[in-house]
Amino acid sequence: MTVSITGFITARLEEDHYRAYQAQGLLGTPTPWWTWRHLRNRFGTSITRADAQHIGHHGPARVLREVEAKRHILADHSTPHTVVDGFCTECGREVDKNHHGGDWCSWHGDHACPTVRSLAAAWSDHEDYNTDWSAT
Fold it and tell me: 128 by DSSP, 3-state: which?
């Protein structure tokens, strides 16, 4: 099944939201008191000090904020935008009137502007990622 780039990103954000929400319930309200000793006592001796710092820095609350921010970015870049005086009203890109018809910017929607392609790249190792979406 072929999925659009916006559909792909939306699905990944839902997964991230669900996992962070579940982790938040498991760990309680994440706060700066997450320490190596606390996490080691909670999850066992396999966790290193570096692991604890990483977990504390990328805790569930931060992931939930990132999901919300990425949803806003995707919403801003996922529909065609109008063109005024040859420039897209959303991204500011110059639009070739002969190529795009002059009344909308094709860098949005499923044509995927570089911003949307960059969002998708975070999940480039996912089985549903389409390499045609590469930001480069």
Answer: coil
